[in-house]
Amino acid sequence: MATRRAALPPIVVLTSNRTRDLHDALKRRCLYHWIPYPAAARVAAIVRRRVPGIGDPLADQVAAAVRRLRGLDLYKPPGVAEAVDWATALRVLGISTLTPAAIGQTLATVVKYDEDLATVRGSGLFDD
What we know:
- It contains six helices and no strands.
- It is 51% helix and 0% strand.
């Protein structure tokens, strides 16, 4: 088997949501570009596109709630994927408004760790 050489060195793009740490030797060879969470309006647009029939008000409410959750000291702040999952769960359950009762029923869809659930519930963030 012959060795093939690239005419140009390849460029490899690595993405990470920090679920696993990268080895120091690999990190030394990387350039970093940190991408912030998108604005609530962008999250709402993504939710509307990914969850057919969600409705503008609920998509906006989910995006705003996820933005507020990110302001808490959570082990795993929710990303766009969690916003989409939450909106999907709300849609499947026939919920059209993000009320405290609806949040209580579906919060584990967007907050994945028990300690984070306790933090959210203790924060009063979604109390009436």
